[in-house]
Structures
1.
Amino acid sequence: MPLPRGYISHSQIRLYNECPRKYFFAYVEEIRPPVNDKVFLGEMFHQAIEMHFRSRIDGAPLPDGEVTSAFVAAFDEAAATREINWQAPQRETRERGLAFLRYFLEHIAPGIRPLMTEKELSAELPGSGVALKGVIDLVEEDFCITDFKTATSRWSDSKASQSPQMLIYKYLFDRSFGPVCSSLKYEVLYARHAGNVRHQTLRLAPAAEAQENLLAMIDRVVRSILSGEFQPLETPYCRYCEFRARCLVKAPG
Ligand code: SF4
């Protein structure tokens, strides 16, 4: 079978590695379960910081109050039209998102020199010729590649270093513009409640063989999808899976 989207991306790779059958439900059958409230909050936060960075890149920075008002309006509009799985009350989730945004505008944004935001990049993978695509949250003037995360708790160093996301972005950036001397970092904002926002910067220094290993891993995932391998990968986390009911009754293929 062809790749469902005609290309591969970090989110597809992450989902396939998490559980091939989950990938099948999401990308082959295109089932769209209600979005989790934490994911929704993250989407709204990213939309707001993109607005902030784009205004600065365009030379007409928006006042912070305009960015926070736009966040509230976009949050309420999207919440009214989309199916969301609210695990915390909607109002509480919005306040937490607003607190993240205010923290970002006050403590993180002033130290950033944005060059590109939400930059979509694509490159053909060696061997298969399949297109690898990614959208980078932020590239700074010194070519530092940054991804922002919103979370309920602090990230561990291993969580940051084990994810292939930034390696994929670095690979795409170098294939598009380089190779360029650039650094990689996650900016993680975390809080369980609006009144207690914290922040960590996690810098990554990939090993020399990281790119080779990355390309081999992506190649394995692509070949498995093309071969129609969508076996279930049962773990204790299955009880949180949004496709659990289908998985119990229906085998793919
Ligand atoms: S319930 Fe478990 S095995 Fe089934 S799709 Fe979800 S994660 Fe995969």
2.
Amino acid sequence: MDFTPDPSSWSGRSAPDIAREFLGQDFVCPSCGRRHAVATRAMVTRPGVEADFEPVLRGLGISGRPLVVFDRNTFAACGEAVMNGLAPFGPTAFVIRRDDLHADEQALGSVLAAMRDGPSFLVSAGSGTVTDITRYNALRAGLPFVAYATAASVDGFASSVTPLIVDGFKRTYPGKAPLAILADPGVLAAAPRRMTAAGFGDVLGKVVALLDWRISHAAEDEAHCPMIDALVDKAVQECLALSGALARSEPAAVGSLLDILALTGIAMQLMGTSRPASGGEHQVSHLLEMRDIQRHRAGSLHGDKVGIGTLIGMTLYLQLFGDGNLPAQRPTMTARVWEDEVRRVFGPLADSVLATNPHEPPTGADWEAQKRRISGYMEREGFATVQGFRALLPAAVRMIADIGGPVRPDQLGYSVQDACDAIGFGKEVNAAKMTVLRLADRFGSLYGFAEDVSAGLPEGRVY
Ligand SMILES: [Zn+2]
Ligand SMILES: [Zn+2]
């Protein structure tokens, strides 16, 4: 507990370098007064990192024989290097051989069955899905776990929770943060370019997530840490500056992107919630993903949909606050219509959605008081942030497209109705979480926006 971070020492240093200071620490925060802890103890991204597995892992006190989990693609890309690097530990490789790999019961069970020899620790060699499958088994088996990242596609490497698909529904389960996150920039840069674009989209999402968080703190006193906020904000700015090099698949840039993705996972560990990294843009993404599960569609990369959700989120912020005032209050959806719509959109999930989302927005004097607090925050800095979206939005559209990612839902095969439902009902994914979607709903602006924007996106009329 004697570690004390010193933000005055941050200038001139990269955000991931600063984040490395927090690894393995448990401290009382000078910025917010809360206790923050990070279970991850090493973050190493460098060429040939596989050759350093032994000293890095021994330095963390890891010993015994590992089970190393790959999918077919990652085994082909790096199986030999990873298994050679782990050779001093006597590793066993397990390759999940499925074309449509999801973190579901079948994949979880296949890894569990492969653990018959009682491994001492688990290593995931993959991107989000392989890491999540391994993370959950590590938690349940009480084993240490190390993540070797093969693509800079998602910020979940450092996560301590696991999104799993069980009975066809995606829900968040407990998980285990990796002791170490290891990556080789050459391997990351050789992954399909669309994976890098997805990782860029997942980082870009933080521009909406951070503003959501600040407004929620102002309006509803939600816990907020200025230091964690500033660290993630700095990382996003560094990521934006990488976009040209990412479009050229330069290994050093893709390595930096992985570090920034890992950093946002560390930020979630520090805060103990997903708040520093996930807001309304992730809610749009989750609803689109739910449609894939309902339709048994193969689906797309998480960060693709987060990037799209971010562009929509910035558009909504501009519509709400772009003129430097709070929006005019319009009538909100009645509880009866809302319930019917939730049943239509969520189908078999509707009962649990209705049970966790009481339709009780603040009204009357309570809402007027919250509006004054929102107004105060917007005057202090929020309006300026939203004004910044005027330039950032078109730039972000170009950056994602240049790196090779999609910028509109129709590019991923979603209909106008899918996009409309995702914007209108993404907020119900997290009960009561204040995001730009819920905010627009309170002002009575959300559903009209969802209809206009979803119809205009495929025609290129929105951005
Ligand atoms: Zn703090
Ligand atoms: Zn994400």
